Give the backbone structure.
Amino acid sequence: MRYVFMCRSLTYAQSAARMLEKNAISASVKKAPAGLSGSGCSYSVSVSYMKGTAAAGVLHREGLLQGKVFLQRDDGSHTEVIL
Amino acid sequence: MIYLDSAATSFLKPPGVKAAMMYAMDTMSSPGRGAYNAAMLAADKVYECRELACRLFNFDKPEHVVFTLNATHALNIAIKTLARRESRVVISGYEHNSVTRPLHEAGAKVSVAAGRLFDRNSALAAFEEKIPGADLVVCNHVSNVFGFIQPVYEISEICSRFGVPLIIDASQSAGIEELDAERLNADFIAMPGHKGLLGPQGTGILLCKAQPAPLISGGTGSESIIQSMPEYLPDRAEAGTHNVVGISGLCEGIRYVLGKGVNKIGGYEAELCGTAAERLSRVPSLEVFCGKAGVQAGVLSFRHASIDCEAFCEKLGSHGIAARCGLHCAPLAHKTVGTDKTGTVRISFSPFTQRRQVIHACTVIEKIANGEI
C-alpha cells in the first residue's frame, strides 16, 4: 500500500517530492490516477505506507500539502484519508 | 572571428550546453504531458533548471521561476500584468524597447527618471523625485548600450517605501552582476537565457514574486477541464509545450555560471571593458563612453567624430570583428546620453573573450579611426 498526495501541478509535485527527499522520505512523482482529480490532468506524489504520516507532516510544514490524500491499495483502489 | 557582441547574444557557450541539448533531443519529450520515461526526464530537467535559477538568484520558490522565450517575452508578461491605460509608470533613461514598447502598447503614461550616465547618485535622485505617486517602476540593472550598472537595490528600497511595484530588466546583468532576488524587492525580474546565462537563444526567465496575468492561454498539463488558466505558477504563465531542448542548454549555462561565480565573470568582463576603454580613450577622434570602476559592466560604446557608426562596424566586420552599431533597440538610452542622432559602436564581452582578442580589436579600431585601414 502507498499514500498518494494530490498536487495541483507537475511543478508542485516535483517540489513536494524534492522536499520529501531532503527529509529522507523516498517519494516519486506520478500522473494522478484517473478519477482522483476533479479537474482533469493532475500529478501526485507517492510515498510508502510507512512514511505517509511523516510525509504529510513535512508537506504541511512547508506549505506543499495542497490537495487530497489517498491510500492506494495493492489492488489499485483508492480511499481518501486524512493524515 | 573575434566576437564582441555578447550583449546581444553570448556566442561561445560552455561545452555542456550543446551536449545537453543534443541529449535532450535524443531522450526527452514534453514535461507534464505523460508519465512515461521521456516525459518524466523532460520534467526533471525543467525542474532542475528552475532549481539552479533559484540558487543563482537567491530565490526560494522554484514554482515561481517561469520559462519564457526571451527577456522581451518575460517583460511583456510583467508589464502587461502591472501597467494599465493611464498608469503612471516611471522608467530609467536607459530602457530598451522591450520595456518602452509594451508600455506604449498598454497606454501607460511614462515618466523618465533620466539620471546622468555612470552617475548612480544622479539616477537615484531622479527616481526619488519621480516615484512618489507612481503606479509602477521599470528599470534595467545594466544598460545594454553603455553598460551602466544602475542602483537597483536602492531604487527597490524607494519603491518599497512608497508601495510602488517594481519590475527589473536583468537582461544585461543576469549571470554577470550579482542579482539577489531576496534582497531586491521586485515584483518581477526578467532576463534572457542566451546572454550572461550562456544558454541558447529562445530561452528566458521571469522570476515572479507577484501573480502574473497570462500573456497567452492554452494547455498546461494541469486542470484540463477548467477553461480558465490555472491560478498557480508556473502553469499560469507557461501555456504550451516547453522549449525543453533550450531549457536543457540553459541549465548547463547556469551551472557553468554557478561554478565560475558571478562576481568572477562580471569582474573579468569589466576588466576587459576597462582595458578597451583605456586604450580607445587615447584616440582623439573617438568619443568613448566609460565610467569609473564599479559602475560599468562589460559593455562599451564609442563613436567616431566623422565616420558613421554603421560604416565603422562594417569595417570592423571586414577585419573579422563582430560588434554592434546603431541604436541597439534602445533609442531612449541614446537620447538620455545625446547619441540618438549618431548611434554608437558597441563592443561587449563574455567569459570566453580573450584579452589578446580585445587588444587586437582595439588595434583595428584605432587604425579605422585614424583612417589607416
